[in-house]
Design brief:
Helix content is about 40%, strand content about 15%. The strands form 6 sheets. It has a 5-stranded mixed β-sheet with strand order 9-8-7-10-14, with helices on one face. A 5-stranded parallel β-sheet has the order 16-17-18-15-19. The chain is built from 23 helices and 24 strands. Helix 2 crosses helix 3, helix 7 crosses helix 18 and helix 17 runs antiparallel to helix 18. It is α/β, with parallel strands linked by helices.
């Protein structure tokens, strides 16, 4: 805009006419600032301005602001009409001052931390846009940088900037907006859902503006139609378990908060030739552009927290875990699914508000999460494993990730077709699903919840009864994915036959349960730690004293680098069990067997099947007499194992 030219060409007569008209109308409002806001959208002639003054009631003139979008005499912008008094005491309008390019204050609101905002509306590239301007930066250099970053020019000069700061703080609409920093459901009534692009699906109780991460704004667009997606993608998912489970998680994500279920997902692992990523790509095509929605595991834990918050009540697609730093992968597997950002101090003292979220995830990699972390020297705890169970990406039918080819020559041909289709058909399915979900939650919430519960019960009836606590936690995610997939099918969104979703998810559950689902993971880890330790070091003379080598008389000189305990060979004493016995010091037991677990919990697990001996209430038993006579540690009791493997494994070896 050529502001200087327009400013020079304005006459005092036009200024006065415009100003009196604005004052006459503006004084009728109830603003807080120096002036009253007036919006001029069309052209107005001088005769029209004079007629307005003639017909209006005489009123004292007052300064006011004017937002002009298109006008014959003033350039587009935010203008200030000030008032002055001449030497005779007569008030008159001063020459109008342009403060900035045009933008309106259309509302105000607060975020979840209580920070205040002004909602501004402006045009850029012919399109109307809105942003939430933080009140705490108004009048500061970063506040002007905020506006200029949106393409809104700001006039230099302390007086002009002061007037503009007053305009932002006091003028415009006082309509209350909801300012949200995370995506997902806007309120506890599930009235509207915010995509990470800022698009609002549904009918919120009030106006909503999103101020979270918009780095993937372009990814959450749509192309094609639901019918086209069904014809080119959905129809080929029937009978293919891995893609069906992944798609089920897309539909399950908005239900997590509704059913009060924790965050979590599934990790598909296998070699690149299997097509481990194809299931995730197909699934997220329901959300948006799959090539842009994919998030690499390579990143920082803070970055993943921001990603999770923006995808709140939605789905993360984390691709290729081998690119991640193992330490970051371990932190992410905990922090993202824990649902809360790290505690951070605030600049003004105290702590900043912590972002929270509920999120579903699909992850891929060549290795399962546990083995990937173990190779780097980290252990995956039971809680992490439950929230991101590992499932073989290979369906086991010879077609890689697919169970059915639907007429294609091989798995690769089907994968290529689906990838190509997903490049041009995306984003419509999830929108249709959420629209239906919002509508039913508004009109018949109890009916919807009842149907969802019935579907969950129907699928759960097909699972093994009496699952241990940790497998049961993981199973709830399979159950919700299956129910959500069937719900979308009943609403005509997937194009699948009823029951296809159940069958696919059940197949994936079977693959996971056979590999990892038996018993509690913590118990398996404890038993494995004990087995690995005893088989690696139990017969080592560098750490254990073998009582068979100890003579009588007290002159024994042990040959060990560090004393870890005693070994009593099989059949060494009368009444022996026929298996070696291992006596461990407290330090070794806690460091190598417990590995951070509560020793009482470890003792409970290892004594349950008789592998570790117990003496009444004592978890340590009395040492053999010869061991006491050596007096190496001045103790008479130690932890004792019978054999270097659990009894059930020893029986299998016979």
């Amino acid at each position: 805009m050529s502001d200087n030219r327009d400013d020079r060409n304005e006459t005092g007569e036009n200024n006065a006419a415009n100003g009196r008209q604005g004052a006459a109308k503006g004084n009728q409002g109830g603003g807080k600032g120096n002036g009253r806001l007036k919006l001029v959208k069309g052209e107005r002639s001088d005769l029209e301005a004079l007629a307005a003054i003639r017909d209006s009631e005489p009123q004292p003139i007052a300064p006011y602001y004017e937002v002009i979008l298109h006008n014959a005499t003033l350039s587009a912008g935010v203008w200030y009409h000030g008032v002055s008094t001449d030497k005779d005491g007569v008030e008159h309008f001063k020459k109008p001052q342009k403060l900035a390019d045009p933008f309106e204050i259309v509302g105000r609101g607060q975020d979840f931390e209580g920070n205040e905002y002004r909602v501004i509306e402006f045009k850029r590239n012919g399109r109307t846009e809105r942003r939430a301007l933080p009140m705490d930066i108004v009048g500061r250099p970063d506040g002007w940088a905020f506006l200029r970053g949106l393409g809104i020019g700001v006039k230099q000069g302390s007086m002009l900037m002061g007037l503009l700061a007053d305009y932002i703080q006091w003028e415009g609409s006082a309509e209350v907006w909801q300012v949200v920093r995370r995506g997902g459901w806007c309120d506890k009534h599930f009235s509207a859902y915010v995509l990470p692009s800022g698009e609002v699906l549904g009918s919120p109780e009030g106006k909503v503006i999103y101020i979270g991460d918009t780095s993937k704004q372009e990814a959450f667009q749509s192309a094609g139609s639901v019918a086209q997606w069904q014809a080119e993608i959905g129809r080929y998912l029937a009978g293919n378990s891995r893609p069906l489970l992944a798609l089920g998680m897309v539909f399950a994500a908005p239900l997590l908060r509704l059913v009060k279920q924790e965050s979590g997902g599934f990790h598909f692992f296998g070699s690149s030739s299997i097509g481990k990523s194809i299931s995730g790509l197909i699934a997220v095509s329901a959300l948006g552009d799959p090539s842009r929605l994919k998030v690499q595991w390579k990143g920082t834990s803070l970055g993943f927290d921001n990603e999770a918050a923006s995808n709140n009540d939605g789905l993360l697609f984390l691709d290729e875990i081998s690119e991640a730093d193992p330490k970051t992968a371990k932190e992410v597997a905990y922090s993202v699914f824990n649902g809360q950002s790290k505690l951070q101090g605030a600049a003004k003292g105290g702590n900043r508000g912590r972002l929270s979220w509920t999120v579903a995830a699909i992850s891929t990699g060549e290795y399962d999460l546990e083995n990937y972390l173990r190779a780097a020297g980290f252990e995956l705890n039971a809680g992490q494993a439950v929230r991101l169970p590992s499932i073989p990406a290979d369906a086991g039918k010879g077609y890689g990730a697919f169970d059915e080819l639907h007429g294609f020559a091989d798995g690769k041909s089907l994968a290529v077709h689906l990838e190509e289709a997903a490049k041009s058909l995306y984003g419509t399915v999830f929108r249709a699903y959420v629209a239906e979900l919002v509508q039913r939650l508004h009109t018949e919430p109890e009916v919807l919840k009842g149907r969802l519960k019935a579907l969950q019960g129907e699928f759960e009836a097909q699972l093994p009864p009496d699952l241990a606590s940790q497998p049961a936690r993981a199973a709830r995610r399979f159950v919700l994915a299956a129910a959500a997939l069937e719900l979308a099918t009943e609403w005509g969104i997937t194009g699948l036959e009823r029951g296809a979703g159940f069958a696919g998810v059940l197949s994936c559950f079977g693959a996971w349960y056979e590999r990892d689902g038996g018993g509690n993971r913590e118990d398996r880890i404890i038993r494995k730690s004990a087995r690995d330790f005893l088989q690696a070091y139990g017969q080592s003379s560098k750490y254990f004293v073998n009582l068979a080598d100890v003579g009588i008389g007290g002159n024994y000189q042990p040959d060990y680098a560090e004393f870890w305990g005693f070994v009593v060979p099989a059949n060494y004493e009368d009444g022996s069990t026929g298996k070696p016995r291992y006596f461990l010091t407290d330090k070794v037991f806690e460091e190598y067997i417990c590995k951070g677990f509560d020793p009482r919990k470890v003792c409970q697990v290892l004594t349950a099947d008789g592998w570790m001996r117990k003496d009444g209430k004592h978890n340590r038993i009395k040492l053999p007499r010869k061991a006491v006579e050596l007096n190496l540690l001045c103790v008479k009791r130690m932890y004792c194992f019978v054999g270097d493997v659990p009894p059930d494994e020893a029986a299998e070896q016979i």
